[in-house]
Amino acid sequence: MTQMSDLQTTLFYNGDIYGYPQANALLVERDRIRSIGRYDELRAGLLDGHLIDLNGGCLLPGFIDAHIHLIHTGLVESGWRIDLANRSRAEVLEILAQAATARDGEWVVGYGWDESTWVDRAYLTMEELDRISPHAPLMAIRLDGHLLTVNRKGMERIPAAAPDALIDRKRGLLREGAVSALVNTVKPDRRAMSDALDAVAGLCHRLGITSVHTMSRLEHFEAMMMERSDRKLRITICPEVASFEKLSAVGLKTGYGDPWLRFGGIKIFADGSIGAANAAVSEPFLSGGLGELNHETETLCQWVQKADRSGWQTIIHAIGDRAIEQVIGVHEALGTDASLRHRIEHFELPQRPQLERVKSAGLHLSMQPNFTANWSGSDSLYVDRLGTKRDQLSNPLRLIHDLEIPLAFGSDGMPPSPLYGLHGATQGAYPEQRLTLEEALARYTEGGAYFGFSETETGRLAPGMKADLVVLDEHPLEHPAAIAERTVMMTVVDGEIVYTNGETRTEGRE
Ligand SMILES: [Zn+2]
Questions:
Q1: What CATH number has the domain bearing residue 165?
Q2: pTM of the predicted model, to two decimals?
Q3: How far is the CA of 143 from the centre of ligand 1 (A)?
């Protein structure tokens, strides 16, 4: 690319501009969109600057992933955590065995196994891990992060503070609070954190993601702050409720920060997951049990009240209908401030009457359509855990959309791909789960911007908005059913090209 001119203008031309059927060009000045229109008109007024040929592709607002775990995904992406996703049981054990040999007595941390895709659908066992790593401590975290298997050496390192009730010492299985207690004892150093953030920013750019809302511990704030503008990824950090006192004591609140790193809401877990069969449901899992509520309603109520009264959005993970009931009930009882855009995360198994109540309470729903693509439909994990009828009622995106409940999409990192999520949102197994691609795209762009209080800056293509852009190889509405096959050709953040897939030509103005 040639030297930027003083004006720092870039004209993207020869392609579609999403939402502007008459336009074929978009002009960026420094970090913002200046105008959208016909190439001839936009070029006429230009003395200098760059020209970028879209090659018939389509320019859209950059994707916003409203629920991701940056550090977690980054540590896998950088190789610090061993990637076990999309592997068979035998492959998982093989990869871990190699790592255990290579690390020579150090902790081996694997992440991403998912027994629901295995023939026997059984969790990894302590015996299996002991066989491949008799001397080094080894933990293998399940894809959903709510459960892990540890070997005997690792079992010895479980901190005393880990809740005993969540540890199955015979099978080497840890759940929920016990998972985080153990995982948090194995900390990457500053360098590993920085590498992880660089790696995850690169991954986001390749996927067309320009902003994220990350569910991350407050202790990761510093690593995110260092070099934040160099990474060119807008981060909204949503810290855990345990850090709330510290944050509010110094007068911080939702929205504080700068264009690269700011505070979102306070993250609270009301229940577990469907995969780990511990989401709080009112009708038992097929394997038995009603799952668990993580907190007494009174405790939840106190947290939400404190947050609400001190200007903090709340972000409450609630998957089962019983957890959803608890969260809605708390908001109803407190009459929380809807202008704080309080969120419920996942919201997978709501009862139909709960939808209306979510709307009346002014709550916002952050959902992950990749979950339906992963685990819903015939012969799926959800059918296995819940039966067909409840699978069919899960993730009712269509109903939520038609009720005009504020809705944003994210991936929870499983996998962090907006195009795959859009596939899930539009091609769910059941009609009540499906949006049109146009509706779904809005949830992956302006939806996330709204949930992060940045809708006047990001999430849409319009003059004056930040130039956070993604170029797809073709207008996505040409072949909506093939959205998962679209290619990200280029990603632009803050007016700067941060990714091209190699085939894109850029040229200076002659
Ligand atoms: Zn999550």
A1: 3.10.310.70
A2: 0.90
A3: 11
